[in-house]
């Protein structure tokens, strides 16, 4: 069985001037997060539940 290719999209919370951007792929059994400008740095991997908790926290505590 072949795993689908990550479907990357820019986070809606990325900076408007594109200086602090991340991309998220959430179409897999795990969530992948990477730096938009430097893919060579690798990816952060999270479970869907952990990612949902993180984004809920970020929305609640956004400045």
Descriptive account of the structure:
The chain has one domain (8-60). The termini are far apart. The chain has a four-stranded antiparallel beta sheet. The protein has one helix and four strands, in the order ββββα. The longest helix has 13 residues, at 48-60. It is α+β, with helices and mostly antiparallel strands.
Which properties best describe this structure?
24% strand, single chain, alpha+beta, four-stranded antiparallel beta sheet, 63 residues
Brief overview, please?
The protein has 63 residues and is of the alpha+beta class. The chain contains one helix and four strands; from the N terminus they run ββββα.
Helix content: 10-25%
Rounded to an integer, what's the Rg over CA atoms?
12 Å
Low-confidence stretches: none
SSE run: EEEEH
